[in-house]
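Fill in residues.
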């Protein structure tokens, strides 16, 4: 309040000095004109010009009225006969005095109105520019937290005051955050219980509170809600420290907060729309997954039921060799179903984050041998060989899961390669890791290939795999590797669509393990 009173006195003294100075200057010019023999009309015009100057400088009608009245009296006292009295010999002088006074008032009013209109236009232009900058700033923000933070920082730069802001989360105000105009300012001043209560009251009642308001006038900040008609997104406090804002500043701040609320509302709608699209996509993927599973389950189940029916009804008519063949078919199909179910369970554990890796040092060649003992029964129709640059390669891995990865890749190659094809498994020692590469004749084929990507944070995994759509579920187990697994076509439409995939064959990379020296 003392600051406001000081400003009022400063404006009063400024206006008084300006009016007195212009009055003395106009009177001096009037004496000069009288000495040079100019008519009284020229002196009157000088006084009217003084009214115009005062209206431009002070923008206050009171000083213009005072100046007009004093100029008429001084003109009568100093320049009309008899001089140095307020009487006149000419009966037309009173009319002249009234006319001069009215003309001075009209000129001052017109000047003040023109200047106020210019001031309003300047304020509107400034407001438009600030709101445009605010809108551009909010568009660059990535989320709701950044929007509120950028708004608080913008107010801090504009007002030159410390700004405190609270984010509303699930109907509760979060802990306060700060944008300090003075880096060394004490934050504890704004963490008092009274400040928190004022912010909470604003959040609940959607009205202003704090400095200069009826509610919590002893608070250090003026608190305002970031809100629209339906929702309060947060509360911002401006540390005015007893300073009062004018109407223009209040409206500008409310407009900025309105822009922030509009951006937050738009961000919420966009987030909900993305969630709806993701849910719809997940539903579509689930439907495709069920169709794929149904297709993969139907074939072995049909084979199992058909073989079991033959054995039940015609076992005596079949030879022992034929019965063993049917039993073997039933066993292989059931094992394939078990592996499929295991892969599905592995996918579920990966998505839920419940997959625990048992990392141990293993001999890579033994892991390859174990995997080849469990590949598809159709492997006899192909030539499967393993090549290694080193007979003794140790690597850290979860052996059970790596075996499943290799089984999936080899079965994949068997299923989509022509009969009597050569499938090669290569072990290559690289700097810091072992590379397991599976080569088959279908690399580059695109007739039944698609791309799947998996990531697993806890194992720091990056996986890209090109596989047939019908067996896409099998590659989920590859995401369990504490390394990387990938595959890519070397030619054809798939290679053109994904030129950044330059690997020629499916491959698995594992970290090397070096035994400690005795």
């Amino acid at each position: 309040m003392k600051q406001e009173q000081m400003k009022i006195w400063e404006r009063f003294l400024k206006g008084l000095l300006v009016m007195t100075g212009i009055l003395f200057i106009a009177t001096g010019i009037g004496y000069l004109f009288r000495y040079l023999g100019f008519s009284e009309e020229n002196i009157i015009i000088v006084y009217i010009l003084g009214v115009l100057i005062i209206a431009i400088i002070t923008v206050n009608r009171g000083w213009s009225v005072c100046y007009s009245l004093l100029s008429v009296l001084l003109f009568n006292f100093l320049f009309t006969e008899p001089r140095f009295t307020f009487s006149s010999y000419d009966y037309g002088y009173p009319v002249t005095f009234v006319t001069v006074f009215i003309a001075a008032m009209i000129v001052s009013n017109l000047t003040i109105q023109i200047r106020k209109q210019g001031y309003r236009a300047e304020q509107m232009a400034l407001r438009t520019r600030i709101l445009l900058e605010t809108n551009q700033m909010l568009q660059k923000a990535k989320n709701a937290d950044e929007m509120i933070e950028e708004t608080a920082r913008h107010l801090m730069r504009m007002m030159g005051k410390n700004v405190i802001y609270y984010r509303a989360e699930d109907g509760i105000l979060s802990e306060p955050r700060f944008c300090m105009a003075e880096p060394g300012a004490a934050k504890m001043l704004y963490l008092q219980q009274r400040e928190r209560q004022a912010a909470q009251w604003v959040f609940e009642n959607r009205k202003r509170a704090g400095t200069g308001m009826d509610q919590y006038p002893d608070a250090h900040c003026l608190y305002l809600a970031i809100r629209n008609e339906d929702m309060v997104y947060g509360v911002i406090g401006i540390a005015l420290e007893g300073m009062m804002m004018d109407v223009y500043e209040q409206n500008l701040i409310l407009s900025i907060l309105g822009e922030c609320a509009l951006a937050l509302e738009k961000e919420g709608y966009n987030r909900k729309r993305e969630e709806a699209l993701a849910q719809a996509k997940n539903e579509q993927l689930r439907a495709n997954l069920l169709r794929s599973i149904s297709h993969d389950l139907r074939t072995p189940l049909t084979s199992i039921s058909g073989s079991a029916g033959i054995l039940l009804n015609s076992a005596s008519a079949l030879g022992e060799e034929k019965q063993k063949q049917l039993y073997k078919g039933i066993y292989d199909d059931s094992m394939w179903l078990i592996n499929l179910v295991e892969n599905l369970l592995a996918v579920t554990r990966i998505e839920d984050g419940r997959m625990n890796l048992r990392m141990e040092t293993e001999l890579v060649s033994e892991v390859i041998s174990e995997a080849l003992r469990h590949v598809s029964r159709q492997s006899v129709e192909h030539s499967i060989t393993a090549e290694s640059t080193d007979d003794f390669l140790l690597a850290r891995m979860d052996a059970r899961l790596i075996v499943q990865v290799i089984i999936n890749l080899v079965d994949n190659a068997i299923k989509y390669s022509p009969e009597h094809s050569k499938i090669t498994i290569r072990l290559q020692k690289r700097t810091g890791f072992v590379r397991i590469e599976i080569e088959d004749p279908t690399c580059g084929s695109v007739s039944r290939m698609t791309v799947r990507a998996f990531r697993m944070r806890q194992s720091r995994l990056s996986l890209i795999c090109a596989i047939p759509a019908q067996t896409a579920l099998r590659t989920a187990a590859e995401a369990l590797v504490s390394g990387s697994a990938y595959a890519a076509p070397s030619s054809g439409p798939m290679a053109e669509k994904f030129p950044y995939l330059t690997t020629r064959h499916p491959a698995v990379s594992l970290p090397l393990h070096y035994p400690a020296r005795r």
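The chain has a mean pLDDT of 75.
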